[in-house]
Amino acid sequence: MTLVNDYLGPAGGGAWFSDAQWLQALLRFESGLARAQADCGLIPEPAAQAIARACAQAPLDRDRIAEQARASGALGLALVKPLQQWLQAHAPQGLPWLHWGATTQDAVDTASALLTQQALQALLAELQALVAALVELATRHAATPMLARSLLQPAQITSFGFKCAQSAAALQRSIDQLAQLAPQALCVQLGGAVGNGATLGTHRLAVEQALARHLGLGASGRSWHTQRDTWMRLAMEVAVCCGSLAKLARDWSLMSQYEVGEISEAVRGSTSSAMPHKRNPVHCMQAVAQAQAVPPLAALLLGCMAQSHERALGEWQAEVAHWPELWRHAHGAAAALRQAAQTLQVHPRRMLEHVASLRGLVFSEACVHALAPFTGKHEALAAVEQLAPLALEQQRDLQELLVPWAAGRTAPAQLPALRRALALACEPQQAVQASQRECLALLASRAAATLEESPVNAEHTDICP
To answer: What SS3 class is residue 73?
Structure first.
């Protein structure tokens, strides 16, 4: 991570896939492979113990490994060399069995699965915290009326709670999808040179399952050297999730504009050296910046699926290089919005001021329905279309103009009922009821789904067998 990238993410966040973590994950593969083969009676137990000691004690020079990998084109092979040197010097009985039956892609793919497992855990934790904050906002503001916008223009009345509940539901769907996809994707790789496990022969599946148990990953029962579909589905769900995060960040950014002022992020001191009056939505800015990089990353990763035959020439290597970026950006966007949501300041009075500034035009459809029983629907629609521009021009409420128009077309005895119908049609708390119902329905659906889940699924932590 660089300084320029670091300030866009959470403090201490996105530390997965570091050089040290890559090396440790590769060592876990080599040690776990030897232990699994010993469990299956394929190599001597002392050899497995020697390899485990080598993985724990052999000195590793990051730059030397990078240099050797650059020359050979194989990162896993570059790691094996210092292990071989240590075994030669300290425990030669393990040397013939180091990396036996595996290929460098087995090591790198399995290491990548281990690191992705950690990244997914962190992403799910941020998403769950964000959803919880959104649910709290939705519950509190289910009936808080505000303008809905269509093509960035004022439309009708919705509720702030409904907007929050919709975002929470979208993110919960991604949480559920990620939890379902993870056990299928986060699996060990043990295909050998060309994916058929020839060296291990009929013992391959048993070794794969034993290795999976040692590492806490899944066992797919097949090689996925160049068949990356299951692996890529996990990545694409992360990309979809980032789309939902970007939508939320965009909406909140627009609502935070001074001229709009319907929400604001918590005060955190000056955010501008020359304009101290500014209250920048910093967390939303961070989320937008993080999510902006994801669509081209998703396209790049999808493009890497066209891998040649049984081992890719460049495509897989590009995937491995760029895979971590997807997880860092997703986690950064989720963390930024979680921080924004947990301290968000909502301004219902400002929301009502925007409704009132339109002089009742947002209630036009409701006014037509209110007038129709008294004047006929066609006439009511024509009147609203005619009088709506005058309401804005004269800065008078549409209801105020409709009453005298309707009075000339309605029996005097019906005027009190007509006035009551128009007043009700132009009441924000009446107009918000549809959004309130939808908001409460989303919250109830989520609560019911949570109750139906088992404790393990509800936690979304045991993402691999």
So the answer is: coil
Residue 311 annotated as catalytic: yes
The one catalytic residue in 18, 272, 308, 357 is 272
Is there a contact between 159 and 144 (Cβ–Cβ < 8 Å)?
yes
- Distance in angstroms (rounded) separating the CA atoms of residues 23 and 26: 5
pTM, rounded to two decimals: 0.93
- Residues 354-377 as b/e (b if ≥16 CB within 10 A, e otherwise) read bbeebbbbbbbebbbebbeebbee
Residue 429 identity (one-letter amino acid): Q
Q: Do β-strands 153-159 and 345-346 pair in parallel, antiparallel, or remain unpaired?
A: unpaired
Q: Terminal CA-to-CA distance of the chain, rounded, Å?
A: 31
Name residues whose C-beta falls within 8 Å of residue 137's C-beta, 6 or more positions apart in sequence: 160, 161, 164, 341, 344, 346
**Exposed, middle or buried by CB within 10 Å (0-12, 13-18, 19+), for 339?**
buried
Task: Check if the beta carbon of residue 307 is closer than 8 Å to that of residue 105.
Answer: no
| 150 classed as catalytic | no
Helix intervals (H) in 141-278: 160-185, 204-215, 229-256
- Select which of 213, 222, 311, 409 is catalytic: 311
Residue-wise pLDDT for 318-346, tens only, equals 999 999 999 999 999 999 999 999 999 99
Strand ranges, E, within 223-371: 263-264, 345-346
Dump pLDDT digits (tens) for 408-425.
898 999 999 999 999 999
Residue whose token pair is 């949570």: 450
Q: Are 384 and 366 in contact (CB under 8 A)?
A: no
Q: What phi-psi label fits residue 314: left (phi over 0), alpha (psi between -120 and 50 degrees) or beta?
A: left
Beta bridge partners of 146: 158
